[in-house]
């Protein structure tokens, strides 16, 4: 079956540094991925998405890289700020329409 | 434009009771999905509705059910509550069932079963 995993459960970075959060997926037919940010007490917030016909997509301070060969994607956050502290989830768009989420990586930003 | 709203935000129930949670999607969104979030299992898909029809269902027992109204608002119901049903229940809306349109989540309903 489909599964989505994260390489690290926690990540601690210094304010101003760049953060990289990794994610692996198992379904080679997956063609759509989303990164979400979830702050304490809130629902997941859409950050950025990418389709499998792309290998890179950039947003404001965020970049998602997709490597279909090794079924891996990453979220890069530039100049990480304290407000970036949250749990980050990658989600596989799935074959049925529902999202398949990874377990999440908790990002802590040290001032 | 208002985001996804869920009511109530917090709920405490006892085992054996039933509960109904409500979700109002973003205006214009016609697809509503429900997810359960627990520390152990993470985010798991419950079901998805579009145009008042259930289009997809996750691997949950029949105690979990839902419906969608003509205005796209959705409710989910859990009958015969068990302690393990304690979780954050999240609703997400999308314009349609096209996965590429993205799903936008509400703040969730925190259900505690005692």
In short:
The complex is a heterodimer of chains A (111) and B (114). By secondary structure, chain A is mainly β.
Characterize the structure shown.
The complex is a heterodimer of chains A (111) and B (114). Chain A is mainly beta. Chain A has one domain (4-110): Sandwich (Immunoglobulin-like), CATH 2.60.40. Chain A contains no helices and eleven strands. In chain A, strands 2, 4, 5, 9, 10 and 11 form a six-stranded mixed beta sheet that branches. A five-stranded antiparallel beta sheet of chain A has the order 1-3-8-7-6, with no helix packed on it. In chain A, strand 4 (32-38) and strand 5 (45-51) form a beta hairpin. Chain B is an all-beta fold and 114 residues long. Chain B contains no helices and eleven strands. The model of chain B has no long low-confidence stretch (mean pLDDT 93). The chains are: A mainly beta (111), B mainly beta (114). The interface between A and B is medium-sized, with 24 and 23 residues.
Helix fraction bin of chain B:
under 10%
Strand content of chain B: over 45%
CATH superfamily of chain A: Immunoglobulins
Can you summarize the main beta sheet of chain A? 6 strands, mixed
Tell me the domain tally of chain A. 1
N to C succession of SSEs of chain B: EEEEEEEEEEE
Give the number of DSSP strands of chain A: 11
DSSP strand tally of chain B: 11
Separate helix tally of chain A = 0
> Ranges of chain A with pLDDT <50 over ≥5 residues?
none
CATH architectural category of chain A: Sandwich
CATH topology of chain A: Immunoglobulin-like
Query: How much is the radius of gyration of chain A in Å?
Result: 13 Å
Q: Low-confidence spans of chain B: pLDDT under 50, at least 5 residues?
A: none
The CATH C-level name of chain A is Mainly Beta
Any idea what the radius of gyration of chain B is? 13 Å
Distance between the termini of chain B: 37 Å
Shape of chain A: globular
């Amino acid at each position: 079956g489909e599964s989505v995993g994260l390489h690290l459960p926690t990540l601690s970075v210094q304010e101003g540094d760049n953060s990289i959060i990794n994610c692996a997926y198992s379904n080679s037919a997956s063609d759509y991925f989303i990164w979400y940010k979830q702050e304490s007490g809130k629902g997941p917030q859409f950050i950025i998405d990418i389709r499998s016909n792309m290998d890179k997509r950039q947003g404001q301070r965020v970049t998602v890289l997709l490597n279909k060969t090794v079924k891996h994607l990453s979220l890069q956050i530039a100049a990480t700020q304290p407000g970036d502290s949250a749990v980050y989830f990658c989600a596989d768009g799935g074959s049925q329409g529902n999202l398949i989420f990874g377990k999440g990586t908790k990002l802590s930003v040290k001032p | 434009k208002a985001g996804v709203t869920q009511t109530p935000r917090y709920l405490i129930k006892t085992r054996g009771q039933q509960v109904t949670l409500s979700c109002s999607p973003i205006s214009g969104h016609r697809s509503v999905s429900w997810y359960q979030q627990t520390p152990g299992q993470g985010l798991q898909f419950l079901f998805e509705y579009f145009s008042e029809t259930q289009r997809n269902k996750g691997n949950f027992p029949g105690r979990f059910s839902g419906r969608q109204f003509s205005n796209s608002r959705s409710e989910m119901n859990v009958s015969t509550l068990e302690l393990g049903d304690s979780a954050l229940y999240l609703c997400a809306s999308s314009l349609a069932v096209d996965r590429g349109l993205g799903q936008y989540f509400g703040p969730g309903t925190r259900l505690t079963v005692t």
